[in-house]
Specification:
The protein is an all-alpha fold. It is 53% helix and 0% strand. It has one domain.
Amino acid sequence: MPVDGIMRIWPQSISVFINNRMQCIGCPLATFHTIVDAAREHEIDLDRLLEDLNKVSQ
């Protein structure tokens, strides 16, 4: 699922992207990039990012 879709379904996930200094909000690539892509582009540990996203989406 693209990052944009995640933020639309779980708006509380936006805080995770902001806290990780990811500029995915409003980024045109967010409609194409997956979490894996975004973590790689921003050099963020994927497991930690997924853990943080799971915490806010429950």
